Amino acid sequence: MENRSAAAAALAFLAVAALCCAPGAAELARLQHPPKHDGSLSLLVVGDWGRKGTHNQSRVAEQMGRIGDKLDIDFVISTGDNFYKNGLKSVHDQAFEESFTDIYTAQSLRKPWYLVLGNHDYRGNALAQLSPVLRKIDDRFICMRSFIVNTEIVDFFFVDTTPFQLNYWTDPGKDHYDWRGVAPRGKYIANLLKDLDEAMKKSTARWKIVVGHHTMRSVSEHGDTKELLKLLLPVLKENSIDFYINGHDHCLEHISSRDSPLQYFTSGGGSKAWRGVFQPNKDKLRFFYDGQGFMSLQLNQDSAQFIFYDVSGNILYRWSSGKTGHPRSSTYLDEE
Ligand SMILES: *[C@@H]1O[C@H](CO)[C@@H](O)[C@H](O)[C@H]1NC(C)=O
């Protein structure tokens, strides 16, 4: 197990190294992560966590370790806001170990972590957090702006959502955002949407999942992110994306789109929570928990099962979706 995960991380590292050095490569970085021998895949999703163990981060981490072991997870996804309050200062920032390495210590979590950046990560040295040098300290940490993880049955499209939100550019207040390698916004977003659309059109995986930091639909503090609804959502609908998974709001949510099969899942309960905010949403709210916790996802050719857990590892909510028939003409069976 230990060897396999180290090997996977090493392969991922090489793939990234090859891509970042290819001149003019416009395609999104693509990593391969094979499923289990029976073709299934299981993983955990956590977001909004890096607080040096405080605000119940350590308790959530402990339960992730326990559930991760039970489900024999293949990897972990982080929906961003990996380090509070202002990302990492440099690749030598102690926060990397204090909030990540020293917290997620369970054997079952010694698997690759695929991470996106959140808005708080952009408030520090974003390039440090993206640097492969961090893998010399902890080889699990695979953080890029936008990239694809191909697992045969699922294509995961990780999307850098922070640059979408206009007021970070126009009205940053006293926060500073590290836009190196991103500005100007319009060009960055146009290129990203084009690359995503092309990659999604080429995907032949049974399931297609998009992961970002910001909410599309949310009933909590931040609510919907209107730039994502306007710019990213049409690309997701056009390409029959099954699920959009995000953090940003510090809670757990499941919302169903009313005009497409798309399902929205928020897993942003990695540490500080209990905001006490509820604002209604136009889509169909199925589940909302304002406290700490995390999510598991188990997939095979025919079904996808989502489970939300609280800070003590209790199951709060379970939902599954099935696909029958030929992958190209699948029908959705809502099993709730
Ligand atoms: C941590 O979790 C416990 C159990 O749910 C809760 O009572 C406590 O308020 C939480 N602490 C914080 C800081 O959220």
TrEMBL record:
Secretion signal span: 1-26
Sequence positions that bind Fe cation 2: 81, 119, 213, 248
Superkingdom of the source species: Eukaryota
UniProt-listed Enzyme Commission number(s): 3.1.3.2
Catalytic reactions on record: a phosphate monoester + H2O = an alcohol + phosphate
Keyword Hydrolase: yes
GO MF annotations in UniProt: acid phosphatase activity; metal ion binding
Cofactor binding remark: Binds 2 iron ions per subunit.
Binding-site residues for Fe cation 1, renumbered to this chain: 48, 81, 84, 250
Residue span(s) of domain Calcineurin-like phosphoesterase: 43-251
EC class: hydrolase
Compartmental location: Secreted
GO cellular component, one term: extracellular region
Cofactor(s) listed: Fe cation
Keywords: Glycoprotein, Hydrolase, Iron, Metal-binding, Secreted, Signal, Zinc
Xref: PANTHER family: PURPLE ACID PHOSPHATASE (PTHR10161:SF58), TARTRATE-RESISTANT ACID PHOSPHATASE TYPE 5 (PTHR10161)
Family listed: Belongs to the metallophosphoesterase superfamily. Purple acid phosphatase family.
Designated name of the protein: Purple acid phosphatase
Protein species of origin: Paspalum notatum var. saurae
